[in-house]
């Protein structure tokens, strides 16, 4: 029974890899590839895959055993950095939609093994624009039937009401207020207060915060031991959500903190094990 149960699960990792994995200076990002190989996930959702072409993300994925890979957009001809998202898998990725309009870093919508995946990375400097982005994402998910299984993942650059007690000390709020004085383009507050609206909308739509299901106490996904410029105080910006059709499929969800993830990105990855 134990072996069969193992065969019926999928392992998903969502990871903001920091500026195209710039901490890994090897030509083919072999240190990241080795870490993924050791983790042996079935599916990987990546954020900040700067500099990768479609061919390069395919070759990178193949180096850790994933024959299927897509990136939301390739590098711009003018050299502009777009912080694209990507998705790789051991299993075919089908019915792919790449959304680049009205999403600063893009949105990948795709199916793997009968599940609908949405991979994104929300606006880092505007609470208002994040509100528009989550509306687009939730409208995408609501287009399906209630029986369909949907997952939303990525660096959502926003705080959750489920973590409100952690932020009530005002440390993160005051840091953002001071940061906005120095960098006027940072509009990360609503009415000069932390914005819980983005995550509240996800919860109101019936999505389940997978990490919170297993870890009611606060745990940060950023910063790591690598410098992180949005806050020197603990934040949880990296999320894995599932819709209500998957509420009985969750096996475990963790933030992976080890010697590699401590220093190769400014965010820690989140891992979810769920039943097929």
Count of folded domains: 1
Given as residue ranges, the uncertain stretches (5+ residues, pLDDT < 50) are none
Q: Write the element-wise H/E pattern from the N-terminal end onward.
A: HEHEHEEEEEHEHHHEHEEE
Tally of alpha and pi helices: 8
Task: Give Rg in angstroms.
Answer: 18 Å
Provide the CATH architecture: 4-Layer Sandwich
**Widest β-sheet, arrangement of strands:** 3-4-2-1-12-11
- CATH topology-level fold name: Deoxyribonuclease I, Chain A
Describe the overall structure:
The longest helix has 16 residues. β7, α4 and β8 form a beta-alpha-beta unit. α4 runs parallel beside α7. The chain is an alpha+beta fold and 276 residues long. The strands form two sheets. A six-stranded mixed beta sheet has the order 3-4-2-1-12-11. The protein is built from eight helices and twelve strands. It has a single domain, classed as Endonuclease/exonuclease/phosphatase (Deoxyribonuclease I, Chain A), CATH 3.60.10.10. It is globular and about 45 Å long. The model has no long low-confidence stretch (mean pLDDT 95).
């Amino acid at each position: 029974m134990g072996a069969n149960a193992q065969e019926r699960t999928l392992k998903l990792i969502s990871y903001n890899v920091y500026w195209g994995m710039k901490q890994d200076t090897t030509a083919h990002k072999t240190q990241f590839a080795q870490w993924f190989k050791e983790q042996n996930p079935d599916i990987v959702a990546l954020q900040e895959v700067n500099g990768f072409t479609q061919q390069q993300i395919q070759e990178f994925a193949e180096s850790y055993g994933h024959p299927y890979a897509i990136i939301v957009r390739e590098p711009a001809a003018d050299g502009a950095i777009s912080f694209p998202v990507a998705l790789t898998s051991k299993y075919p990725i089908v019915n792919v939609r790449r959304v680049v309009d009205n999403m600063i870093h893009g949105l990948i919508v795709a199916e793997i093994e009968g599940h609908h995946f949405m991979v994104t990375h929300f606006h880092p400097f505007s609470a208002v624009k994040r509100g528009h982005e989550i509306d687009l994402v939730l409208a995408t998910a609501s287009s399906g039937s209630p029986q369909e299984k949907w997952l939303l993942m990525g660096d959502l650059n926003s705080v959750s009401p489920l973590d409100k007690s952690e932020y009530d000390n005002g440390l993160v709020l005051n840091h953002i207020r001071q940061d906005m004085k120095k960098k006027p383009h940072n509009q990360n507050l609503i009415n000069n207060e932390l914005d819980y609206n983005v995550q509240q909308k996800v919860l109101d739509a019936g999505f389940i915060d997978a990490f919170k299901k297993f870890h009611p106490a606060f745990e940060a996904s950023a910063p790591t031991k690598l410098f992180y410029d949005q806050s020197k105080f603990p934040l949880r910006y990296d999320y894995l959500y599932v819709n209500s059709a998957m509420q009985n499929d969750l096996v475990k969800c963790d933030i992976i903190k080890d010697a590699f993830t401590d220093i190769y990105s400014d965010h820690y990855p989140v891992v979810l094990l769920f039943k097929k």
